[in-house]
Structure formats: structure tokens, C-alpha cells
Amino acid sequence: MQTSRRSFLKIGVAGAFTLAAGGALYRLAHPPGSPNRFALEGPAQTVLNAVIPVMLGPVLPAEPAARAGALTAASQRVRDAVLGLPLATQKEVQDLFGLLALGPARRLLAGVAGGWEQADARQVTAFLQSWRTHSLQTLQVAYHALHDLIIGAWYADPSTWDSIGYPGPLKELLA
After folding, report:
1. 64-83 vs 87-101: helix axis angle to the nearest 10?
2. Could you tell me the superkingdom of the organism this chain comes from (predicted)?
3. What is the domain partition of the chain in residue ranges?
4. How far is CA 54 from each of CA 21, 125, 128, 146, 153, rounded to the nearest angstrom?
5. First CA to last CA across the chain, in angstroms?
């Protein structure tokens, strides 16, 4: 099917207005917890809880209690990593999680029909893959932000280095 330039522009403008309206509705319904700092709570935490196990996959422990502890620790490390970013970047990350938590945006952009609580690994994997390879660079950047935050926060903790065979920094460099 051949799309005309005019149709393409109309769809793009309509999509931009839809995203802007969705973001405005989310901001009205969920005012930020604190005006200057990133707050990982409620819907944002639910998004992260769905994405972390898919991103980390086999490096997570298989035993349920250890897995739950690792997921909680990973979530906390992501939160701490975001808090170490400049305030403007923290706001952008907050907006990304807010967008993913918003029902219409979650359905349209992530392809997750139910809430993130009901999303299975297959749906989350499809969402991440679609954003990773999407033709819109904005979605690719959002994917890489999620990826870098989660993977970076996970491997920044020395307790996770054994899973990849990293012995740690050279002792000579620490002196």
C-alpha cells in the first residue's frame, strides 16, 4: 500500500497531538511526587517490574525467593542510578515511565493491552524489540534509555559480576 506524503504528515501530526494529550492527561491525573526529584512509585514501579525480568533474563536467579530479592535490588539500583542523573534527565525518565504507565499510550506504543501487572514476558519482549528497531528514533532512544538504566544499574553492583565472570577491577587501579 502506497502512502502519500500528505497522509503521512496527517498521521504524524495526529499522533503527536495524541501523545501530547495523553501526557497532559497523565500529568493532571498523576501529579509528580516531588517537583525536583525522580520518584519511582505506583505505575512507574509496575512498568519497571515488568521490564526488568525480561531485560535481565537468564542472569537472574531461578529460585523464586532469590529472584524476588534480585528484582527488588535491581529496581532500587535503577532508582538510585536515575537519582544520580541531572534533574532535567530525571524528568525525562519520569515522563518515559509516565507515558508507559498511561493506558492508551501503553496500548498504542507498547502493544500491552492489559496493565503491566498482567503483561507476560512474551508481550514485554515484543514491546522492547519493537522499540529497539522502530523507525522513529525517539522510541529507539527510549528503548536504549531503559536498557542502559537497567543493565548499567545491574552490573554496577559488584555482587552481579560473578554471573559474567568479571573478577573486578585490577587491584593496582584501586590504590
Report:
1. 130
2. Bacteria
3. 5-162
4. 30, 6, 9, 12, 15
5. 64
Global pTM reads 0.72
Measured in degrees and rounded to the nearest 5, phi and psi for residue 141 equal: -65, -40
Length of the chain measured in residues: 175
Q: How far apart are CA 15 and CA 23, in angstroms?
A: 12
Q: Enter the DSSP assignment of 2.
A: P
Q: Are 65 and 117 in contact (CB under 8 A)?
A: no
- The cell for 123 is 508481550
Q: Which residue has the cell 530479592?
A: 69
Q: In this structure, how many other beta carbons lie within 10 angstroms of the beta carbon of residue 17?
A: 10
| Phi and psi at residue 108, to the nearest 5° | -75, -45
Q: What is the DSSP string of 45-91?
A: HHHHHHHHHHHHGGGS-SSHHHHHHHHHHHHHHHHHHHHTS-HHHHH
**pLDDT per residue of the chain (175 residues) written in tens, 0 to 9:** 577 888 877 787 777 778 777 777 777 776 655 545 667 778 888 999 999 999 998 888 889 999 999 999 999 999 999 988 898 888 899 889 988 988 888 888 888 888 888 888 999 999 999 999 999 999 999 999 999 999 999 988 888 888 788 888 887 776 6
d(CA 123, CA 110): 9
